[in-house]
Amino acid sequence: MKILLAAVNAKYIHSNLAIYSLKAYTEAKSMDWILHKPKRGEIELAEYTINQQKDDILMDIYRRRPDIACFSCYIWNLDYVEELVEELGKIRPDMPIWLGGPEVSYDSVDVLRRLHQVKGVMKGEGEETFAQLFRIWKDQEGDKGLERTEGITFRKEDGRIVENPWRQAMDLSKIPFVYRHLEEFEHKIVYYESSRGCPFSCSYCLSSVDKRLRFRDAGLVERELQFFIDQGVPQVKFVDRTFNCRHDHAIRIWKYIAKHDRGITNFHFEIAADLLNEEELEILEHMRPGLVQLEIGIQSTNPETIRAIRRTMNFENVKCVVDRIQKNGNIHQHLDLIAGLPYEDIHRFARSFDEVYALKPEQLQLGFLKVLKGSYMEEQKESYGLLHKSRPPYEVLCTRWLSYEDVIRLKGIEEMVEVYYNSRQFTHTLDALEEAYDSAFELYDKLKEFYDEKGLGGVQHKRSARYAILLEFIVKNYPDREDYYRELLTYDYYLRENAKTRPEFAGEYKVSKEILRHFYGAEERNRQYLPSYGSYDRNQMRKMTHMEYFSITGKYILFDYKERNPLNQEARTCMIELEFLRSNEEIR
Length: 588
Fold this sequence. Notes:
By secondary structure, this protein is an alpha/beta fold.
């Protein structure tokens, strides 16, 4: 017997923790079964992406010849999986197909009515359910075995649909560690889970449906994190819904990774900022720059909206915490906003945007409400005048407060924020440009209008082209400041990229060959500006750095790409006095 656990991820760099956990748990538990222990190859994993041709996936599954196929379903892949299921049912009508995951758990009966090719749905967490199904399939118990299995909805041989009770929450510490063979995850993000469930009741989130909050044993977590540290894994992304909802859990893990850090691994956590206490803040403040990054869901700063969506958040407290962390300069912060929430029209959303933008996070995510099946938000959609797309991701179209015209406008602003703010490639130019507008929201709104006028939206522009477009926007609105902004754009460009081909927008290069020759000659002897380049000669140093003259400062600035900021990857910069260049006898 061969069972295929298949995942269709959003990107190649993603991995699906769920299917690895199902396989590992079943194999570990079956050690006690003796007769039911899976043989080598009986449970097979397959990961694909939504960017692949469906025919290629269909052919791959067919060639694997599984006896049973199971698919992991999420909001981003449900349409894709359903199409695959329909075609698989035609070419393999003999093969039972099972689905699992959050996108099918809360309307499992409707899923079976809609997809006649599907035999059953695993509801909620699936490790224990899948292990039990494995035994039933091995023993060929059929519907009789399925009838006594909790956590599933299935179709009987006579076509009737049976909805069994949900399964009780399991002990999270019993799930085996799935990353012993890291070669399977090369070039992919490593996801890790130290808790399940969420203590909050946000109306748009399915985590609010399941209040069964539990934690993996902290000692076990420490040993597994040590494995990642020892192996030099670049990033470990915790999938815990609110990592710091229990202080002792968060403190112990943060202290551990701080103490055992080897300067390589980055850990990503989704947290509630206003829950952080003084001890946690002090631990974070003393961490190596780049050791952790924090994702903080603010969603809205409107108190009426926060109450309506059943969130518990004090924005003033969040603001103080985010600002404190930001000033320390060692932690990447990612803040989230959601457009389309109740009691927030475009003007109130603009205020939320400006208040969160003023915190200057490394990333600002402008997302749109997803009306998930089974959520409290779905129950309230009529009272909110909430219309959403019928197919995944069920994104908002309009509400009583927000028209579809407003949504279109915000979509354009979202693109501008992603291109110009979240890329972190225009930081100094944007800081200066914001001063010319009443608000940050207005700046990105005007940028969006400019893109619309020029027909530039939705196009994959080269990086240098984005600079040129921004300069064109500036020249149109502030023609007398062209030279000033051109230099800021040039500074931003070289701050991130050691480009040897000068972009057209930067204009004429103002550093003479003579100055370059004598500067790097002096550095080869004295290492005044490049002390860490001891083993490099003048030619090597020149290739690894860039010098630029800026009229706005009257200084030469050196960009050092060997010494980058670990938080934002910006080059180290230093100003070179003209007197230093003239002090060399060779240049007099």
